[in-house]
């Protein structure tokens, strides 16, 4: 794969992931109804103590998402940033997947707070899978760039 193609592909991945995490992080900070964050509400149905910390959980997740956005824009520590994004998405997806397999259904996960729209659990799982694939694709591109750079330095 050509270096220019890899660079633009990685840029597109950074923009897409950055936009998603930006809307998600800001949307949850704008929406003061933390109990409306369905992921926390679902978790609290199994782990009752979660509801006590709902505000802290949502604010922490929002800040983590915005930090990821900052590093995606800054283009520093990109491997770590994509790994953090992948782990965050994998965590969300595994929780939602668990509840989906339990037969629960929700109108919206509340992942985007004030910007949420009724996307349903299935759509959210598909969207998160696509976003995780983008993270993996970005990590593969970084590794390919690193190998290409190593090859160019040896010649």
TrEMBL record:
Membrane protein topology class: Multi-pass membrane protein
GO cellular component, one term: membrane
GO terms classed as biological process: methylamine metabolic process
Pfam families: MauE
Location in or out of the cell: Membrane
Segments crossing the lipid bilayer: 12-30, 50-73, 80-101, 121-142
Name by which UniProt lists this protein: Methylamine utilisation protein MauE domain-containing protein
């Amino acid at each position: 794969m050509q270096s220019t193609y890899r660079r633009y592909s990685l840029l597109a991945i950074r923009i897409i992931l950055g936009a998603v995490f930006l809307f998600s992080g800001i949307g949850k900070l704008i929406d003061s109804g933390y109990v409306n964050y369905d992921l926390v509400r679902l978790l609290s149905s199994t782990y009752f103590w979660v509801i006590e910390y709902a505000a802290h959980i949502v604010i922490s997740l929002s800040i983590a998402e915005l930090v990821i956005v900052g590093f995606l824009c800054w283009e520093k520590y990109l491997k770590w940033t994509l790994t953090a994004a992948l782990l965050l998405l994998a965590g969300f997806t595994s929780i939602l997947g668990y509840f989906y397999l339990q037969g629960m259904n929700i109108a919206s996960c509340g992942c985007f707070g004030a910007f949420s729209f009724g996307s349903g659990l299935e759509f959210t799982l598909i969207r998160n899978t696509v976003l995780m694939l983008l993270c993996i694709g970005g990590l593969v591109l970084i590794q390919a760039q690193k190998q290409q750079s190593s090859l160019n330095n040896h010649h």
